[in-house]
Design goal:
three-stranded mixed sheet, mainly alpha
């Protein structure tokens, strides 16, 4: 008789199957119910989603690569662009990425702001939909964002840090900005409503 080892694991990236009360990363079916109006508790939950389910997971991939992104650049770049899209959708609506320039203008450091539209058009759209960068470039390190001979480029580790700082700025402004609070609450409700599990 052959014995098999059970190698099954609970889902950590999709709908929860079976019953569970544990908060899994990026599992809308396990998120607390949306409050009727903005609360500090919701701010904490949204921050936890952004940190644990998005930013920390990307950092784990980079850490697993021991910082050498030379042959992992597209995978990390796509994840960073999807993270930018997801995080920006909380305060500025889910608009197929079209909210990205507004988020970049409002929360990224000054060096990225002139390139807000390019981050959407040249990076997010091309990377996510074509797995290519025909009109821009990425580097594996901490190179700042620059335009050289008409080609925009930045280092992935530099962009990751810029996205972390932008997220921190967004969360800080979320404490007092009622417009951001209303949009974030609506986005949370929409994601929670669509959850299966």
């Amino acid at each position: 008789m052959v014995e098999y080892i059970n190698v099954s694991a609970p889902s950590v990236s999709g709908a929860i199957l079976g019953s569970s009360t544990q908060f899994y990363a990026w599992q809308p079916s396990t998120w607390p119910e949306a409050p009727k109006s903005w609360t500090p508790e919701l701010a904490t939950t949204v921050r936890r989603i952004m940190d644990e389910s998005i930013l920390n997971e990307i950092s784990n991939v980079i850490d697993d690569a021991k910082g050498n992104l030379e042959h992992r650049g597209f995978v990390v770049a796509i994840a960073l662009m999807c993270a930018l899209d997801a995080i920006s959708s909380y305060g500025y609506g889910a608009q197929s990425g079209n909210q990205i320039p507004t988020f970049v203008q409002a929360h990224f450091g000054q060096e990225y702001r002139p390139h807000a539209s390019a981050l959407l058009q040249l990076y997010r759209h091309f990377l996510v939909h074509s797995w290519s960068l025909p009109k821009a470039a990425i580097k594996p390190g901490r190179d700042p964002i620059v335009k050289d001979n008409g080609v925009l480029s930045f280092g992935l580790l530099h962009f990751r840090e810029a996205l972390f700082q932008a997220t921190e700025d967004f969360v800080k402004k979320l404490e007092t900005n009622e417009g951001l609070q209303a949009m974030t609450l609506q986005r949370y409700r929409n994601i929670k409503k669509d959850a299966i599990g």
